[in-house]
Amino acid sequence: MKISIPYFFTSIAFLTVTLLAFASCGTSKEVTCIDESKISDGPCTMEYNPVCGCDGTTYSNPCAADRAGITSWTQGKCE
User: Fold this and answer.
1) Which of 13, 26, 39, 62 could form a disulfide with 69 if both were Cys (CB 3.0 to 4.6 A apart)?
2) What SS3 state is found at 46?
3) What are 11-36's pLDDT values in tens digits?
4) Which UniProt keywords apply (predicted)?
5) Spatial separation of the C-alpha atoms in residues 75 and 52, rounded to whole Å
């Protein structure tokens, strides 16, 4: 059986799109920056030790970020 060139490329394109669709299923993990269950108005020190929250906001210290429900941050001010 002889396969025509256009059919061959169409088949390859379809196979590639199908494989990419299956490969991406279930792999996207939405990273949640704010955990609403951790939001509180509990006490924190007044210490100024700035952290940059994953939401792009600078918090005065890690405790303030925790209190805002921020799940991750880096040391220092946000740029």
Assistant:
1) 39
2) coil
3) 555 555 555 555 545 544 456 899 99
4) Signal
5) 6
**28 within 8 A of 14, measured Cβ to Cβ:** no
Block residue for tokens 């880096």: 74
Residue 60 DSSP class: S
Share of the chain above pLDDT 70, in %: 61
38 Cβ contact list (under 8 Å, min separation 6)? 66, 67, 69, 71
Instruction: Report d(CA 79, CA 66) in Å as an integer.
Output: 20
What is the DSSP code (8-state) at residue 68? T
CA dist list (Å): 5 to 8, 19, 52, 76: 5, 21, 56, 59
Q: Which residues contact 35 (CB under 8 A, 6 or more apart)?
A: 69, 71
Q: Rg of the chain over CA atoms, in angstroms?
A: 24
